[in-house]
Amino acid sequence: MAEPIEKEISVPSPGKAAIPVLLTSPPKGVKHSGFALLLGPGAGGDEKTALLTAVANEVARQGHFCARYRAKVPNLGFRVSVCTRVMEHLFHPIKGIHPQKGCFLGGHSMGTRVAGTVAAQLAGGTAESESVPVKKTPATKGKKAAAPAKKAAASSTTTSNGSDFPTDFVPGLVLYSYPLHTADNTKALRDQILLDIPSTTATLFVSGLKDNMCQPSIFAKVYKEMKSTPREVVQVTDADHGLGFGSSKPGQAKKEALAEAISEWTVAFMDEAIAQKSGEENGSGKKKAATGEMIKKKAELKKEADEWTVAISTIA
């Protein structure tokens, strides 16, 4: 099979510097699905991070566009605007240069907070206050107050930066190492973004059981309270916040094997969500049974014949 096509592009952002983006397109001869994936980096990473690169290549091989944006400023509000602008420029169903039926959002660490925030905004829900700055307009003495703006049509919504999308444009989220809290403070939770993810948005989590920014017992409570359906979490034994296993040679080999597995999980998750969405639009779709809406899995790296493999088991 031919390899995906990767291209560096600059997405214009009115009044601001252009946004560097890596766009990975399906190989020639591979039918496009009509759906894309947009990935954001962690606070200290960029669009060339090994995990995001591996995911982008596999996603594109299976017929989906994948874009990775650069955002060096570790400010949630700024990154939300970057993510939204890139999605609008590339994948908007009418205005995008590669118009899509829908766009999955995700990324690593801080990129996951951005993805969840944008998903809530597009669905007309709430979002973490720090990400949506609101400008208060002072009353003007002697002038008639402006009439309230008309509500947007039920089928679309307008984001804080003026971009308009169908409310169901984000069918799912892929969240790698969601930073539920800081490494030294487990009480200041960043859970509201997860709780604001719409019930109609499918969510896949991948998290290391040694992630010092997402203690499993704390995450379990938040995960149970979420509205998102279906939702699935894969917790990886011995993996840290970077979804790695240390700097040793065996640790690097395990990390590469895990990145390959995460890429496959991401594609399977996207394909299932797309099939579900397409079925519902055709009037033939069936909702998942209640028992299948919240799935927990455990992954463990094992060495077989000098190669690391990933074994998965479902947690009751």
TrEMBL record:
<dbReference type="InterPro" id="IPR026555">
    <property type="entry name" value="NSL3/Tex30"/>
</dbReference>
<dbReference type="InterPro" id="IPR029058">
    <property type="entry name" value="AB_hydrolase_fold"/>
</dbReference>
<feature type="domain" description="KANL3/Tex30 alpha/beta hydrolase-like">
    <location>
        <begin position="170"/>
        <end position="264"/>
    </location>
</feature>
<feature type="region of interest" description="Disordered">
    <location>
        <begin position="127"/>
        <end position="162"/>
    </location>
</feature>
<feature type="compositionally biased region" description="Low complexity">
    <location>
        <begin position="135"/>
        <end position="160"/>
    </location>
</feature>
<dbReference type="InterPro" id="IPR046879">
    <property type="entry name" value="KANL3/Tex30_Abhydrolase"/>
</dbReference>
<protein>
    <recommendedName>
        <fullName>KANL3/Tex30 alpha/beta hydrolase-like domain-containing protein</fullName>
    </recommendedName>
</protein>
<dbReference type="Pfam" id="PF20408">
    <property type="entry name" value="Abhydrolase_11"/>
</dbReference>
